[in-house]
Amino acid sequence: MSTLAYEIVDVFTDRPFAGNPLAVVFGAEGLATEQMQSLALEFNLSETVFVLPPTQVGVTYRARIFTPTDELPFAGHPSVGAAVTASRRGMFGVGQITQECGAGVLPIEVTASGATLTGSVPTLGPELDLEPLLEMAGLDAEDHAGPPPRVAGCGLEFPYLPVRPEAVVRAQLNAAAAQRYGIEHVCVFSWDADAQTAHTRVFVPGHGVPEDPATGSAALGLGVWLVASGLLPGEGRAEYSVRQGAEINRPSFLACTVTAADGAVVGTTVTGHVMAVARGEIAVPPFVG
């Protein structure tokens, strides 16, 4: 029986058994998409990433990222975790590398303990109806605080729902409401302007993940939302941080930057540590054509 090497790492934490667990699989270039999806379901983590040879000249590697139910064009903790894990395995050294994924070619600065990921092109959508998002998060109108919710992203878009600090803790996924309204995911958060810190919960029922412990893509898009909402400056570079996962016993910390010019975001980054926790071999699933 042929097997593939894999590692399990915890991303966006400086200690093991916290942060967001990730399966990083190597040597899968001969697998079909269906086989990769089967492996992601077997690991049953929020995401599994496959480190593959690039298809573009000059790129360090290619990443394919799967939830238990489908493939994503991009995600933050798989990108950070894959880069650091591949570097530790000797595929490349620390320093600046590039990752090819569905969202394009993204720069990543790898260190011995973690990595800084630069987001894809920032996008910003219109304001959203408040009621469906509140119902999906198990909250009511009195819990909303701050500017209206809207969609933003840097490779993967999220609806952002700002609420009172105590409401973040009380939030609870209403999967039936999410399905009824056709909402795949939402980032519920409170904003501490003095500390420049967001306390977030990210629910992803549309991709088989009831709650994600640390979401790099949502942390990147949050910077776009914060600038658009006037909570971070529309000119120059600003730092902010995201705390996530404590409510599900996976505390995570994401250090972010956002750069704006003339009121519009032109660049974002997210930085986090990566802790190795396990490694092994997993059987290759049968191909079903």
Protein described:
This protein is of the alpha+beta class. The chain folds into 2 domains: 3-119 and 274-283, Diaminopimelate Epimerase, Chain A, domain 1 (Roll), CATH 3.10.310; 123-270, Diaminopimelate Epimerase, Chain A, domain 1. Helix content is 20%, strand content 42%. It has helices spanning 33-43, 76-88, 130-136, 165-170, 175-181, 216-228; strands at 3-11, 20-26, 48-52, 61-66, 71-72, 95-101, 104-110, 114-118, 123-127, 150-153, 157-162, 186-192, 197-204, 209-212, 236-244, 252-261, 264-283. The protein has an 8-stranded mixed barrel. β15 and β16 form a beta hairpin. The longest helix has 13 residues, at 76-88. The radius of gyration is 18 Å and the shape is globular. The chain starts with a strand and ends in a 6-residue tail after the last strand.
Number of helices: 6
Low-confidence spans = none
The overall number of domains is: 2
Strand order of the largest sheet: 1-2-3-4-6-7-8-17
* Overall SS class: alpha+beta
**From N to C, what is the helix and strand string?**
EEHEEEHEEEEHEEHHEEEHEEE
Mean pLDDT, to the nearest integer, reads: 97
Sheet bearing the most strands, described? Answer: 8 strands, mixed, barrel
CATH level-four homologous superfamily name of the largest domain: Diaminopimelate Epimerase, Chain A, domain 1
State the total count of DSSP E strands.
17
Known CATH architecture of the largest domain: Roll
Task: For the record, give the distance between the C-alpha atoms at the N and C termini, rounded to a whole number.
Answer: 19 Å
Q: What is the CATH level 1 assignment of the largest domain?
A: Alpha Beta
CATH-derived topology of the largest domain: Diaminopimelate Epimerase, Chain A, domain 1
Radius of gyration: 18 Å
- Which overall shape is indicated by the principal axes computed on the Cα atoms? globular
